[in-house]
Design brief:
This protein has 527 residues and is an alpha/beta fold. 38% of the residues lie in helices and 19% in strands. It has 19 helices and 21 strands. The longest helix is centred in the middle third of the chain and has 29 residues.
Length: 527
């Protein structure tokens, strides 16, 4: 099983023909007999290389519009036969089956067909049957057969053949890669079916991706990590162009995703928005008429935490904004685009990563979020709704002013992206204090207020930034003490989902304090 094996016959049948002509030529020059199908056969023939058609091998023509061409005992017998098993050898002799030592297959582009917006029938037609069957047969019999599903592996395989054969360790690696590819392929098909027929609770679920990068380490240096893309064609960290800077780390990608998802809540046609993120939590968010003002206001919320953070914008970065951002040590900047002048300014910071996404993420897009737990996976739909989708209800005697309502909406959108328990103070279109991830809502209220005092001092402002602010809570107040902490911090209006058995007590406390309260009916826990 662990021997190096020579390649006498190769079956080549690929949709992606990248590098195939050179690969076939290298095989032919090494004395390997070539067998091929359809378009791959034409390519090899036109390259002037000797190649047999699959019909010549099987004795049957391709039929049913190419649906049936390799599903034949002379193909799978040649792939699956155990070479040193006498019974297998006898069956091969009896039925005229020749061994196939190498299979190069890549599959119909199912994922790309779905992404293109094709119709149901076209998508079904791009489900490959014969290809995965050959890949699985060859991979199972890797003791004798080499399976190739990635054109990037062609050079290494040719080099091995020139040096006497394919080592067992390489065949093992290629087999593992092959099974991973067919698993990802089947996962894409099953996931599409589940979406197409609205069947989210399908009995078996698989999630797959293609390797983008192996990282130096994960959250901590002792943890292995890699980044896999799932093929989703949605602007974000996975699809962005990295213009400059060193390689993104595991934490960089996680935090950049959080920053860009948050800033994508804000329509650039309605104003510029900037989000500064640290450890997946916003430490400052602002909207303004222009980007540089939004950045300065976002930074004012928590300039200490912004050090080493992620900056995301919803508009093209201009030179003035770039000049401001680079004054603070920043790990990553992510934006739809950046002017040449802005890129030049950012380029002066060689380690600063600049990611350009080409657009904003659709905050309303459907999708699935997956989290691993011991023994399983938690799967849920993406939280693709926000305060704009709610029927807002003022439950206090005092109505919020127009300015307060604008800030309440901003606070609610930010709170959606803050780890629970989340409290977000906003004043004048910018966050004034953020309390994230505390064990009680009161703690979050106090944390956000305390940080606002520090921020005010850094900005040369007396008191706290929270004085005269509005506040959003990601979930209801179980007791009035949380609301009372907000009032003590200087809040004049609050937005929250409601739904507590003590809502009446909380509303009464708001009325007693003379503040306005709005209920959304929509919770946004984020863990």
């Amino acid at each position: 099983m662990g021997k190096t094996v020579k390649v006498g016959r190769a079956l080549l049948s690929v949709f992606d023909k990248t590098g195939m002509a050179d690969f076939a030529r290298g095989l032919s020059e090494a004395g390997v007999e070539l067998v091929s199908t359809g378009g791959t056969h034409r390519l090899i023939s036109e390259a002037g290389l000797p190649v047999r058609e699959i019909a010549d091998l099987t004795g049957f023509p391709e039929m049913m519009d190419g649906r049936v061409k390799t599903l034949h005992p002379k193909v799978h017998g040649g792939l699956l036969s155990v070479r040193d098993n006498p019974a297998h050898a006898a069956s091969m002799d009896e039925h005229g089956i020749g061994a196939i030592d190498l299979v190069a297959v890549n599959l119909y582009p199912f994922e790309k067909t779905v992404a293109s917006g094709a119709g149901y029938d076209d998508i079904i037609e791009n489900i490959d049957i014969g290809g995965p069957a050959m890949v699985r047969s060859a991979a199972k019999n890797h003791a004798y057969v080499t399976v190739v599903v990635d054109p990037a592996d062609y050079p290494e395989i040719l080099e091995a053949i020139r040096n006497g054969g394919i080592p067992f360790a390489l065949r093992q690696k290629l087999a593992a890669k092959a099974y991973a590819r067919t698993a990802a392929y089947d996962s894409a098909i099953s996931s599409w079916f589940a979406r197409e027929i609205d069947y989210p609770e399908v009995s078996y679920r698989s999630f797959a991706g293609s390797l983008r990068e192996v990282m130096r380490y994960g959250e901590n240096p002792h943890q292995w990590a890699a980044f896999y893309g799932n093929g989703e064609d949605r602007p974000g960290v996975a699809t962005a162009q990295q213009v400059q800077g060193k390689t993104l780390s595991y934490n960089n990608i996680n935090d950049t995703d959080a920053a860009f998802e948050l800033v994508s809540e804000f329509d650039p046609a309605q104003g510029a928005a900037v989000a500064i993120i640290k450890h997946a939590n916003p430490c400052g968010v602002a909207v303004a008429a222009d980007l540089v003002t939004a950045y300065r206001n976002a930074l004012r919320t928590d300039p200490v935490s912004a050090f080493g953070g992620i900056v995301a914008t919803n508009r093209e970065i201009d030179a003035e904004t770039a000049t401001e951002i680079v004054k603070v040590f920043t790990e990553v900047i992510v934006a739809p685009s950046a002017t040449p002048e802005a890129q030049e300014i950012i380029a002066a910071k060689k380690n600063l990563r600049l990611l350009l996404t080409g657009g904003l993420a659709d905050s309303k897009a459907e999708g699935l979020l997956v989290k691993s737990v011991a023994g399983g996976l938690l799967v849920q739909s993406r939280d693709n709704r926000n305060v704009d989708d709610c029927e807002l209800k003022v439950v206090t005697k005092r109505q919020p002013t127009e300015a307060e309502m604008a800030d309440l909406r901003l606070a609610a959108k930010v709170a959606k992206h803050v780890k629970s328990n989340a409290i977000v103070y906003v004043r004048g279109g910018a966050t004034a204090g953020i309390g994230a991830g505390q064990m009680s809502r009161v703690d979050s209220a106090l944390t956000g207020h305390r940080k606002s005092i520090d921020a005010a001092k850094a900005a040369g402002i007396e008191g706290a930034l929270t004085q005269g602010s509005v506040v959003a809570s990601d979930a209801f107040f179980p007791f009035a003490d949380g609301l009372e902490a907000l009032v003590a911090a200087g809040a004049t209006a609050v937005i929250q989902p409601g739904g507590s058995m003590r809502d009446d007590e909380v509303i009464a406390a708001a009325d007693a304090a003379g503040i306005a309260m709005v209920m959304t009916g929509m919770r946004h826990f984020r863990h």
